[in-house]
Amino acid sequence: MVEIFKALSEESRLRILSLIWDGELCVCEIESCLKMTQSNASRHLSVLKRCGILNSYKNAQWTYYRVHKDFIQENKELWDYLQQKLTKLPTFISDQETYRKFKAQELCNCSKEPH
Questions:
Q1: Looking at the keywords, is DNA-binding present (predicted)?
Q2: Is 40 inside a domain boundary?
Q3: Is residue 26 within 8 Å of residue 58, measured between CB atoms?
Q4: How many domains does the chain have?
Q5: Angle, to 10 degrees, between the axis of helix 11-20 and the axis of helix 38-50?
Q6: How many CA atoms lie within 13 A of 53 on its CB side?
Q7: CA nearest neighbour of 31 among 102, 100, 93
Q8: Is 42 inside any structural domain?
Q9: Residue 25 lies in a domain
Q10: What is the pTM of this model?
Q11: What pLDDT, in 10s, does the model give residues 7-49?
């Protein structure tokens, strides 16, 4: 539990969660939308994955991240709280808008296949 709260205590990780809370994103989408370097995004994603909040899978050279089903099931009250509070982050609206623009421009080379 300590690792979960440590992971959630960093704003960039909360912003990542606010982007992928109801779906999945390729690491390149996260980097672009949050204006992070590859190493910075990878570091934050690793922390979220290590404590069990996220899981990932690879498709060719791209890695996709999503909220781990087990985390949601095992931490239902915490997940419900996070879903309410993530929308209140000062960056939530701008991050969502950036993501919509990014998707509309089709800037990502990764080709998603449903999982």
A1: yes
A2: yes
A3: no
A4: 1
A5: 80
A6: 24
A7: 102
A8: yes
A9: yes
A10: 0.89
A11: 999 999 999 999 999 899 999 999 999 999 999 999 999 999 9
